[in-house]
Specification:
- The complex is a heterodimer of chains A (about 425) and B (about 230).
- Chain A is mainly α and about 425 residues long.
- Chain A is built from 15 helices and one strand, in the order H-H-H-H-H-H-H-H-H-H-H-H-H-H-E-H.
- In chain A, helix 1 crosses helix 2.
- Chain B is elongated.
- The model of chain B has no long low-confidence stretch (mean pLDDT about 90).
- The chains are: A mainly alpha (about 425), B mainly alpha (about 230).
């Protein structure tokens, strides 16, 4: 207790700084995965992608990031074990942040596609199980989270498969693909707007202090979806059809229409990413702040301090604004054969899956979900060639991340503990 | 700073290289027309120039084939079976090889097509080149096929193209029969060994169309597996 009284504000500032850096790292690195599809299929320029990411990552983090943040903060570990020694939770959460941040930096250096979600969950489980006691971890919840890591890519793959198949049936395999693209693309836009706003309104807004009924939520989601679709329709109609372009590749003009759709799904993807991944940076910070603010009392019902979500949002935005350009330039050159009609299916599926997971408070991996979606489109024979070896490496790096995150956080935990006592 | 991105998942598409290879093969074999023109004029300097061009294009096609094989490592997940793709390229490559052999053998023996059958012979070569062109058109539809997930209307378009390819190949067969008959009628006027080679050349020109048809068959197989 004394430790918290003496060093409380210092610990908060330290955790805040580490959390901010972590958010910054997520912005610099992870966002590239979320936005790369749009840049790679040439639907957006790098500059446009960054502007979209800045706005929608922040919106997602602020409006829909609350549920996952609360899971990271108090869902994985059983706070009852920390009531007598709350400083351990403060050290542990700070250690978890340090561990995940360090691992993110190391992985970035070597170019491994790690998941920030996996590192932070591994780190929290690590310090809690080893530093405090195996029982201090809510294992049922952890099993649920890990299970979701297997299920969400699968779900998003299946959704992507069917979205892609529907676009084939409704647009590509018809007599007049251009007319049908103009007709049906706004519908997909509605879908993206509807799902995102529905999850945000039902799950996110209470953190901002707004409470709405289910019917109101559905009604407003429909209205927002329609607004998105109408705006989209306006831009779709403005797409210049160039008959010359179709001589070389029959579907060049259809792809142009899909490129408009991809702007919408890119927004959705950035929003979804912000809503789920901001928690990786600020969830532990939220725990630290809550304990210190309540003078060592672990309040189960404590509200999230007002400045935490914006801090994470700003961190992500700064990260992607400063480093995102370079990261995306590398990616944009890498994907040459991803057309907007495939990219949209993958993005829409991944964004919907992620945002629904965010609504239920599950910390999942955005990149994992996107890989699942891409494989789903591949299953529908939509992508010329996918590198299964790379998929295997990605999966391995995700699995390896758990014990490494745990190990690092245990080390940092003991260091912090010995420094402060 | 390397990027920890997931986009290594997207491998290089084999479709563009396959189309480039087919383009090269078609360009290579089309030179047979000016080659035989030069031969008929007894202009062996010009014939040598064209033969060298043919052989150069054949080499470039080989190079593309090798490159393509390198873009097709195991562990790729593709809408087309890897073995089917490799077989497709092999069949394309046979056309360039045959064109090179035709030009090489004809030039080596300074073989002239008899005047009596020259016009028919050139029509026969042209028809075989038509078959190659048609195969190339079908290969050019591969990216459209990918766009439509190898289903629906685009499949019908390609199937029709393959049907046309088969009719062209039938044409070359009957042209070959006619040419053989005409050659038989005049063969006593020429050196027996030359005549033997003439029959051989007729056969090879025909096999240009045969190989083109086999490309069509391979495409049909690829579509049938969808």
């Amino acid at each position: 207790m004394e430790i918290l009284n003496t060093y409380g504000s210092m610990l908060v500032i330290f955790a805040g700084a580490v959390g901010f850096l972590m958010a910054w790292g997520i912005g610099a690195n992870d966002v590239a995965n979320a936005m790369g599809t749009s840049v790679g299929s040439k639907a957006l320029t790098i500059k446009q992608a960054i502007i979209i990411a800045m706005i929608f990552e922040f919106a997602g983090a602020y409006l829909a990031g609350g549920e996952v943040t609360s899971t990271i903060r108090k869902g994985i570990i059983d706070v009852a074990y920390f009531i007598d020694q709350p400083e351990l939770l403060v050290f542990g959460m700070t250690a978890a942040l340090l561990a995940a941040g360090l691992w993110l930096i190391i992985a970035s250096y070597f170019g491994w596609p790690v998941s920030t979600t996996h590192s932070i969950v591994g780190a929290i489980v690590g310090f809690s199980a080893v530093g405090v006691g195996v029982d201090s971890v809510t294992w049922s919840k952890v099993v649920g989270i890990i299970g979701s890591w297997i299920i969400t890519p699968l779900i998003s793959g299946i959704i992507a498969y069917f979205i892609f198949m529907s676009s084939q049936k409704l647009i590509f395999n018809t007599k007049d693909p251009i007319a049908n693209a103009k007709r049906f693309v706004p519908f997909y836009m509605f879908l993206a707007g509807f799902i995102l706003s529905l999850v945000t309104i039902t799950k996110g807004l209470k953190h901002v202090g707004l409470h709405v009924s289910t019917m109101e939520a559905i009604a407003s989601a429909v209205i927002i979806g329609l607004l998105v679709a109408i705006t989209g329709k306006f831009f779709v109609n403005r797409v210049k059809i160039d008959p010359q372009a179709d001589k070389h590749m029959h579907f060049a003009n259809v792809e142009k229409i899909f490129a408009v759709l991809m702007i919408v799904t890119a927004c959705a993807m950035a929003f979804a990413h912000g809503s789920n991944d901001v928690a990786n940076a600020i969830g532990p910070l939220a725990a630290v702040v809550s304990i210190v603010e309540h003078n060592g009392q672990i309040a189960a019902k404590a509200e999230l301090a007002w400045w935490i979500l914006p801090l994470g949002g700003v961190g992500i935005v700064l990260g992607l604004a400063i480093f995102g350009k370079r990261v995306m330039a590398t990616i944009g050159n890498g994907i040459t054969h991803l057309t907007p009609s495939r990219g949209f299916a993958a993005e829409l599926a991944a964004a919907s899956t992620v945002v629904i997971a965010s609504g239920t408070g599950l910390p999942i991996s955005t990149t994992q979900t996107l890989v699942g979606a891409v494989l789903g489109v591949g299953m529908a024979r939509g992508i010329a060639a996918l590198n299964l070896g790379v998929v295997r490496n990605i999966v391995i790096s995700w699995i390896v991340t758990l014990p490494i995150g745990a190990g690092l956080s245990i080390v940092f935990f003991y260091i912090l503990k010995s420094v402060f006592s | 700073m390397p990027v920890n991105s997931i986009f290594g998942v997207f491998a290089k598409s084999p479709i563009k290289p396959i189309q480039l290879h087919m383009d090269k093969v078609a360009t290579c074999s089309e030179l047979l027309l000016p080659f035989f023109e030069a031969c008929s004029k007894n202009d062996w300097v010009e014939a040598e120039v064209v033969r060298k061009q043919i052989s150069q294009y054949e080499k470039q096609a080989d190079e593309l084939k090798r490159e393509l094989r390198l873009t097709l490592p195991k562990g790729l997940f593709m809408p087309i079976d890897r073995a089917d793709l490799l077989e497709l390229v092999n069949r394309q490559d046979k056309i360039a090889n045959t064109a090179k052999d035709i030009a090489g053998r004809t030039f080596g023996r300074q073989l002239q097509i008899p005047n009596e059958i020259f016009v028919d012979f050139m029509a026969y070569v042209q028809r075989s080149l038509d078959a190659i062109q048609q195969a190339k058109n079908a290969i050019n539809e591969l990216d459209e096929l990918l766009e439509t997930g190898f289903k629906g209307r685009e499949v019908d378009i390609v199937t029709k193209m393959i049907e046309v390819l088969e009719t062209i190949e039938d044409d070359t067969d009957s042209l070959q029969i006619k040419l053989r008959r005409n050659l038989l009628a005049i063969e006593d006027n020429y050196k027996p060994v030359d005549v033997m080679f003439l029959y051989k050349i007729l056969e090879w020109v025909g096999s240009l169309a045969d190989h083109s048809e086999l490309i069509g068959t391979q495409l049909e197989l690829i579509l049938a597996r969808s």
